[in-house]
Write a structure and sequence with these properties.
mainly alpha, 0% strand, Myb_dom, TTF1 factor
Length: 349
């Protein structure tokens, strides 16, 4: 297929295709176009965004089957062939002979490149090495001073994944405070959030509202804007002494206190009732993956609270109540909470 035809045909499935480089479009025409057309016949749309548990399981199945067919003895060798120079030629020959691209993407309606990156993330043993030691943090600072943002090189030197070293460096690049928040830090956080929300509202409303409507609109900031997606890295820079995740967690706490007028929603009988409601609603939703949960709808089950508050409470619930939760799928976790934990909570209440 020539380049213009490829762009035209791919545009049906990937609207932003004309922003992609020509070499990537040629690869997509070879790896993805026929698959996308097949999925269309089955009434399945091409997906982007976070991978579901079902898709992750399909990737595992595809990789395991390919290893069985070829006799390659590990997923790491298959997906990180450059780490094994002595086997590289044999592995690449087996990948070509047994159509690695097709096998890896089987049953998953996404661009091949995204499936490949996801598989590498799932099967990279360097992704699961636990906390960084003080020595590793010092090494990371030193390697960054020498190699800048060449995360591939740094990851090889540290035997950690690219993503892991990049994220850890963003945490340690400045003096981050891990203790209780001071009044001054909390004020800085409030100001930073207010600035980004006002800036966003000014952009949205610049041409569409009269001045009287704008002054009325500002009164509605609380309900409309305060827990939408916010640019946390920008807020981190404005606060200066905290990592972006700390800022996000602190903001959720501030909002929860404001919205509940300081009541402790997760204490005593109220806490038991909130857990019971949460488990029941999650079970009723019958979803296969956490990404499919409407957390905003769930927040109304507990009270008028931000969705991040509900997500945090669910995380605590599964960690404290579900044995070996890391090895269970989302639906298995919900079933366990419903069948085993719920009767216990109801009796306690």
């Amino acid at each position: 297929v020539d380049l213009d035809t490829a762009k035209q045909e791919l545009e049906e499935f990937i609207p932003h295709v004309r922003n992609i480089s020509d070499s990537s479009i040629r690869k997509m025409a070879g790896r993805d176009l026929a698959r996308f057309k097949q999925f269309k016949k089955q009434g399945i749309a091409v997906k982007f965004g976070r991978f579901s548990q079902k898709e992750n399981n399909q990737i595992r199945k595809n990789v395991e089957e390919f290893l069985l067919i070829t006799g390659i003895d590990s997923a790491e060798k298959l997906l990180f062939t450059s780490r094994y120079p002595e086997d590289k030629e044999t592995i690449n020959r087996l990948k070509a002979e047994h159509l690695f691209c097709e096998k890896l993407s089987e049953g998953i309606p996404r661009p091949w490149r995204l499936i490949y990156y996801r598989a590498r993330k799932m099967f990279d043993p360097n992704n699961y090495k636990g906390r960084y030691t003080k020595e590793e943090k010092e090494k990371l600072k030193k390697y960054h001073a020498l190699h800048g943002n060449d995360w591939k090189k740094i990851s090889e030197m540290m035997s950690r994944s690219n993503l892991s070293v990049a994220m850890k460096y963003s945490e340690i690049k400045s003096a981050i405070n891990y203790g209780p928040w001071s009044k001054e830090e909390t004020q800085k956080l409030r100001r930073a959030v207010e600035e980004v929300i006002r800036k966003r509202m000014e952009t949205e409303n610049a041409n569409s509202l009269s001045s009287s409507e704008k002054s009325h609109r500002e009164i509605l900031i609380d309900s409309e804007k305060l827990y939408q997606k916010l640019p946390w890295t920008e807020i981190e820079t404005k606060v200066g002494t905290r990592y972006w995740r700390q800022c996000k967690q602190k903001w959720t706490t501030i909002l929860t206190n404001k919205m509940t007028k300081g009541q402790q929603l997760y204490r005593g009988t109220k806490g038991l009732q909130a857990k019971i409601n949460l488990i029941k609603r999650l079970y009723e939703m019958k979803v296969e993956d956490a990404n499919e949960v409407n957390w905003e709808e769930l927040s109304n089950t507990i009270g008028d609270v931000p969705k991040a508050y509900v997500q945090a409470k669910f995380y605590k619930l599964k960690v404290s109540c579900v044995p070996f939760w890391q090895k269970k799928t989302f639906s298995e976790i919900i079933d366990y909470l419903f069948e085993e934990k719920l009767p216990e909570l109801e009796e306690k209440l």
